Amino acid sequence: MFIYFLRNVAVTRIIVVGGGAGGLELATKLGRTLGRKGRAKVTLVDRKASHLWKPLLHEVATGSLDEGVDALSYRAHAKNHHFDFQMGSLEDIDRERKVVKLSELTDEHGELLIPSRELEYDLLVMAIGSTSNDFNTPGVREHCIFLDSPEQAHRFRTEMNNEFMKLHANNGNGTVDIAIVGAGATGVELSAELHNAIKELRSYGFDDLDSSKLNVNLIEAGERILPALPPRISSAAHHELTKLGVNVRTATMVTKAEADGLTTKDGEKIPAKIMVWAAGIKAPDFIKDIAGLETNRINQLVVNDTLQTTRDDNIFVIGDLAQCTQADGSFVPPRAQAAHQMASRAFYNIVAKLNGRELKPYVYKDKGSLVSLSQFSTVGSLMGNLTKGSMMVEGRIARVVYISLYRLHQMALHGVFKTALIILMGRINRVLRPNLKLH
Questions:
Q1: Is the backbone of residue 56 left (phi > 0), alpha (psi -120 to 50) or beta?
Q2: DSSP state for residue 384 in the 8-state scheme
Q3: pLDDT tens for residues 290-313?
Q4: 34: which DSSP letter?
Q5: Of 89, 175, 187, 200, which sees the most CB atoms within 10 A?
Q6: β-bridge mates for residue 176, sequence order
């Protein structure tokens, strides 16, 4: 059993920057143990006021999930779990003085809410996640939606609802043309959710809308969709999407985005009224060489196997922001399960460091991958490298396991009892609330 006893009498200042899945789980663990006993002052910093599990954004985008119900207030959660919350955006790190600099916070009218400020730390954890990578493709920033934040999900839902409204006003004459670039998990799941959304809309007075009115192009530069998953999973997902009516286009590279659609490397124009870019990730641009720390070509911070940066042992990095090399020379993939595992290892190593104990290396354990095709199907593999192979799962069993991943995240934040209450409230909301958020 690991004993949480600190040799130093002085209270250690620990700052976690980024309230994504890994960052919030880590801040919660540190608060419950060290913060509650007054052995450390734990502070979480995030530029948003609330947390939403990133893998749910495609459901927020289509209205299948009401983020107002599922979002978690950082400030309220901090109060309940013995850590502090500071709202703000990281501007810089001064490693010599051991301070993080937060930029000023303004409202939508440009009025100052909170001035720029500095926070002192003894240990710093960077967990700010990733953003979409447009690979400098012309027109993408101006015309495409990046499904990497609740704000972008809201934008998509507004534009989608507007297009459906116009189609309905035109007595269903025409189609809603949507192009999604990138057939990873986000692109695939969004494609399926769109067909679920139009199916649900028929229950709310849009009788003239059906899947034939939805023209979804899922565009992938590689030879197959879900390239990070085994070919048989990719093939199963491809088959299910085709059955739904999604136009899956592999080996198709987009070279330009314009207001009325996308242009491919072959010169073909793919018309679209709504375009989503989900083709890759990178760390935010301001991270590049921040504080003299080592970064890679997509701005990730390079860490050693204990999740400490290569140039400063007092700075840990977890989640998508970390370039962590595995034993076989490959990098830990940017997945929610990796962020969860990193949070657990970083917690252990932080406590070990404060106690003068030996830190342990982080070893990524692939527990498989699941892709939800909305209410139509779920496909994936379980166990990954924990066995000699992977076990492919589909249908209801896969759906239950897929949902359980989110439940594990909730249990890490709230504990078993409160998570059970959240599940109960979710079932009640199914009766009280519409299946699709229409506003």
A1: alpha
A2: G
A3: 999 999 999 999 999 999 999 999
A4: I
A5: 187
A6: 214
For residue 183, count other CB atoms closer than 10 A to its CB: 29
Beta bridge partners of 87: 46
Quickly tell me which residue has 């106690």 as its tokens.
Answer: 355
Using a 10 angstrom Cβ sphere, with 0-12 exposed, 13-18 middle and 19 or more buried, the burial of residue 264 is middle
Residue 264 token pair: 């491919």
Q: How many CB atoms lie within 10 A of CB 113?
A: 10
Q: In this structure, are residues 33 and 351 in contact, taking their beta carbons and an 8 Å threshold? A: yes
Contact 48, 67 (CB under 8 A): no
Q: In terms of residues, how long is the chain? A: 439
DSSP class of residue 325? B
**AA identity, residue 110:** G
Q: CA-CA distance, 10 to 34, in Å (whole number)?
A: 12
Which two structure tokens, joined as six digits, stand for 94?
Answer: 């001064």
- Tens-digit pLDDT profile for residues 61-108: 999 888 877 899 999 999 999 999 999 999 999 999 999 999 999 988
What is the chain's mean pLDDT, rounded?
91
